[in-house]
Amino acid sequence: MEGKVEAAIGMLVLVVMAGLLYSSEAYVFTVGGKDGWSPKPSEGYNQWAGRNRFQVNDSLLFKYQKGADSVLVVRRDNYASCNTEEPIASLTDGDSLFVLNRSGPFFFISGKVENCYSGQKMIVIVLAERDITPAPQPLPPHTPGAATPPTNAQNGFPAPVPTPPVSSAPSRCSSSVTAVLWFSVMVTYLVLG
After folding, report:
1. Nearest-CA neighbor of 67 among 91, 36, 33?
2. Which runs of consecutive H residues, i.e. helices, occur in the chain?
3. Which among 19, 43, 100, 169 has the fewest CB atoms less than 10 Å away?
């Protein structure tokens, strides 16, 4: 029995650690959706980028015909002028993956200047990394003559303050954390019997 308990604890630790790694995994976005990186997409690239929320370590997958086009990462001024001469990075393999390794703007243009002039370019804004721990809220200073909080008539103590509503929007990791916890419970149940 003691061996089963140790095995269950070891398995539980392994599953939780794997879940934590999975929940922090980044997304891969296919630029332009089904159209890929093309001179005439059904939706403008900046419109596509504006519909998505990019975070540090997410990746962009540019799909295009190798040799027929390319993707250049450029500075803001080169983006505006479609200057293909001074790229920061050049992606040429047809299925190019670019990792968004910092917050802030990234500027992409087609390696074919005529495609860039016709609109094959995109700005991606990567959200700043945030600490998910909320900062404590300071108590408001008490001013003389200000209204006092309502009290419970039975005991004279201050009435409870209603809690603010919580967003129902799922976070990036809520479903994977839930899955890991359920899996951990099932493994423990199966091992311990």
Report:
1. 91
2. 2-23, 45-51, 76-81, 113-117, 174-192
3. 169
